[in-house]
Amino acid sequence: MSDRGPEEAARGFYERMRARRSVREFSDRPVSRETIEWLVRAAGSSPSGANSQPWRFVCVRDGALKERIRREAEEGERAFYGNRADEDFLRSLAPLGTCERKPFLRSAPWLIAVFRLTRNDDGSPVYYPGPSVGIAVGLLLAAAHHAGLATLVYTPSSPGFLAEVLGRPPTERPFCLLAVGHPSPGWRPPEAAFARKRLDEIMVVCE
Ligand SMILES: Cc1cc2nc3c(=O)[nH]c(=O)nc-3n(C[C@H](O)[C@H](O)[C@H](O)COP(=O)(O)O)c2cc1C
Questions:
Q1: What is the pLDDT of residue 1?
Q2: Starting from the edge strand earliest in sequence, which strands make up the sheet with 55-60, in order?
Q3: Which of 44, 109, 176, 199 is the most buried (most CB within 10 A)?
């Protein structure tokens, strides 16, 4: 008799994760610092190149700082949507309804600015920082969803301001900005966000 345990668990996890949607409007319902600490611990449990753990998670609850991040981000987005964006990218973004305004950067109870290290604090090297940080962010998103929280991955068009605003050293490069909280009651994800490639489009099996 075959052991159905792994299949059922994997299917259950899939069913849970497929219900995740990016949220761009947050309610003012707070999220505790302890919750955010558990999310970052989950991210920090990720695998990484030579276990070099090339990440930093700067967690922002301070309203004035969030407002400054919003202002700086929107300035970059105005330039992006105004003249820098290429046509194909704008066409791909249109069904998602994004624009130069980023009010979620102020309304989300927490922003987590994720930085990729170029070397560790003790000067030791890091390996495969891009893939390592990407995997860690994925785990953080899964942990947040598991905790009943909503997230958005936001990649500012001109991310350079993040290191300055958050006082980060030159060994930390902005990777992405996560908004974490609860969806506003009226939030509905855009239809386009539900589309996924079929299994046979993303999976090749050699057995
Ligand atoms: C690397 C990456 C960058 C993204 N950048 C942005 C962004 O700058 N602004 C935004 O509103 N959404 C951004 N998203 C969210 C995607 O638009 C979203 O994941 C996609 O449309 C699928 O929707 P879903 O997350 O609800 O499944 C980003 C997602 C990823 C993984």
A1: 53
A2: 55-60, 110-117, 172-181, 150-154
A3: 109
Rounded distance between C-alpha atoms, residue 50 and residue 86, angstroms: 37
Looking at ligand 1, which residue's alpha carbon is closest to its atom 31? 153
Centre of ligand 1 to C-alpha 117, Å, is 23
* Burial group, residue 2, by CB count within 10 angstroms (0-12, 13-18, 19+): exposed
* Ligand 1 pocket test target in 153, 158, 188 with most atoms within 8 Å of CB: 153
What are the pocket residues of ligand 1 if the criterion is a CB atom closer than 6 Å to any ligand atom? Answer: 21-22, 24, 96, 98, 152-155, 189, 193
Comparing CA positions, the residue from 117, 140, 145 lying closest to residue 49 is 117
From ligand 1's centre to the CA of 121, what distance in Å? 30
Strands 55-60, 110-117: pairing kind: antiparallel
Give the three-class secondary structure for 135: helix
Look up residue 191 and give its two tokens: 């239809």
Neighbours of 91 (CB within 10 A): 10
Which atom of ligand 1 has the smallest separation from the CA of 190?
A: 26
DSSP output for 52-105: ---EEEEEE--HHHHHHHHHHHHHHHHHIIIIIS-HHHHHHHGGGT--S--THH
Predicted model pTM: 0.97
Mean confidence (pLDDT) of the chain:
96
Question: What are the beta bridge partners of residue 180?
Answer: 110, 151
Average pLDDT estimate for 15-43: 98
